[in-house]
Amino acid sequence: MGGGSSELRENEVAVELPEPDDARLRFIGRIRTPWQTREECPRQGSPDGPECRVELSEPWGAALAGLDDYESIELLYWLDRGRRDLVLQNPGRDGRIFGTFALRSPVRPNPIGTSLVRLVRVEGSTLIVRGLDCLDGTPLIDIKPDRCAFVPKAPKKP
Questions:
Q1: Is the N or the C terminus of the chain less surrounded, counting Cβ atoms within 10 Å?
Q2: 9-13, 59-63, 124-128: which has the highest mean pLDDT?
Q3: Alpha carbon distances (Å) from 54 to 97, 152, 158
């Protein structure tokens, strides 16, 4: 989710960030959703939410082999439009303050988002899913089977 506004809400605290020096990520694709702004985006994804597309870049399409055996998968993505410097946040604008690590806010030092989504189908190197809560064009970091359903579902009958 994005909205990189530099405006602080009441009682929020930002810190000066050191220069990044240690992580190298490879974005493996982009996520396509109906939401263009943080205000439009749902706070949490819903299993009956709209179908969204997870489009993998080359050469990662082959890595989807066997994924359609799972009903739910976990997506990890980079919240590229969120600020990264808040340590205290006022998410409801109601005066209640929370530390960044006590929230699922997109505002974090390393803005990695996760969603457990329902896999609707695989179309070549694209996944069709329900349950996302990120902005259109969000960079994809990784895909994993649901850790609670690590065993694939029963094989389909011929």
A1: C
A2: 124-128
A3: 34, 20, 28
**CA separation for the pair 138, 158 (Å, rounded):** 37
Q: Which of 3-12, 54-63, 88-97 has the highest mean pLDDT?
A: 54-63
CA-nearest of 29, 30, 35 to 134 is: 35
Q: What is the C-alpha separation between 95 and 11, in angstroms, rounded?
A: 7
Q: Which CATH number fits domain 25-80+111-147: 3.20.20.70, 2.40.30.70, 3.30.230.10, 3.20.20.190?
A: 2.40.30.70
Residue % of the chain over a pLDDT of 70:
89
- Name which of 73, 119, 137, 82 is nearest 104 in CA terms: 82
